[in-house]
Design brief:
single chain, D-Maltodextrin-Binding Protein, domain 2, three-stranded mixed β-sheet, three-stranded antiparallel β-sheet, 11% strand
Length: 567
Amino acid sequence: MNKSFKTLAVGLTVAISLGACASNNNADNNASGSASPAASSSSSGAAPTGAAVDPMGKFPEPVEVSLGRSVDPTYKYEGEDTAEDNVYTRWLKDSYNIVVKHEWEAAPADYGQKVSLAIASNNLPDAMLVNETQLRQMVKAGQLADLTEVYDQYGAERLKQIYKTNPGLLEGVTFDGKLYALPETTLPSAPMTWIRKDWLDKLGLEAPKSLEDLEKVAKAFIDNKTGGENTLGIVGTQQGGSLYSTFLSSGDHFMNFSSLFFANDAYPGIWVKDDGGNAVYGSTTAETKATLALMRDWYAKGILDKEIGLRKSSKEALTSGQAGIFFGPWWSPYDLQDAIKSNPEANWRPYAAPLNDAGVFNSNQATGSNFIVVNKKYEHPEAIIKMLNLHVSEKAESYKTAVGKEMTSQEIPLFLIMGFGDQLQYAVKTTQKVLTGEMKLEEVDKVNYGFTYELSSHVKNIKKEPFDNYDIQYWDQKTDPDFFAHVYAHLNGGSTFVDADVNYVKSIATAQTKTMQTKWTNLKKLEDETFLKIIMGIAPVDEFDTFVAKWKQQGGDDITAEVNELK
């Protein structure tokens, strides 16, 4: 996820917690939550069956929670504060008798390995954040507490509503009828085609629907030099970027070529089922080969930018005014601000395209990667539930006094991105209604959808009539500049996305398996280099078959067997 959107993403998902927002200072905020172990020292315990429980109440005696924790060494805390001792953890202690201790800390780059070592040695903290593979390992090893009863008893209504509006999340961490983890939620995403509509209008062209349509539009832009003498075709992957989203970066839909593959029913980078129901790596399928052949043809014709993988910044091609087509998620306007400032007439509009031959708009499904797990030996799992309750709920008056500002994942223990499943839909539809007068600002659900209230508070300063036309000339970029990108992204990008009928395909695996930990880097390098050579015409299309054979021999078959066990 790009940095400029990170504050919004967490603001949107965690706005309901009124203060538990991630900071865009920390490049690992979305993944680095809290985790670290210690001992427990309270007589609180789980409530007897049938006993009244206050999910937000203070424990009568201090309850210690030891965590394994990812801590960014470059993060700047205020004063003498640390990840273990800061205004948020002190508030937990003073207001709720929850005492946070760190059994160990690790830098974000080393955190996964540290967790794996803790699992292998069976030397676990009371709670920590893990990925899906680690979760399954711990379930198989019998290391985790069954949270079914404690979640039912201590889960706040807000927390339960969040999971209810994100169907399948709790089911995905329930094994043999037992709940073994608390998963994070995700913002919905799919790569749309963003096009300079002012260029379409100038040439009298319709927005593309199919891959064939898209090729014709790109060619028309180039032939008519709508971006000047050096008009570019479709721009995308820059230096160090990926050609498409993967199972390890499922939400990465900005400025790559996932859309072309999806329109060919190809899903490179993720794990899908073949006709027999067995796991297959999408990068090894015939559909992916066919898409590479298409991209090779488009590259030769100039339809695709000739500097794929070479540009230091693909966004510069947008800002320079040379390019009029790229693929990206609904929040792409956050990255279009410089392009619009440089070209005030640049009317970037999103389209739910290209569609496949059956007229379906495909996308991989963005999945969360963090899970809170609790050591089965820990005496007070209800403390972990209560910490998450506090994270997602409207804060008590004590919070405003003791903390009174936004906290980041480096300060909030066991930080998860959490939000209602309909948060984007609500934000878009509600803001539209406030704009048109169908709904009053005071009618917006400020408690559960705090960021929507903020959007609605600013929308009339930014969107001009006609209210249902999102072309750039009907926006005021100067009156309320701090909120322009927020409103523009939601009404321009978000409205198209929430109205789209997306066919989502979820990867079977969403984290590395055991064999991947030693072989995936080399396999991915082989994949990236081969695919780029095929697209650029350096290697023949049939080099794909050689790649598949090498991929299988060098560990792919072993990894596929491991993924099959996850089905």
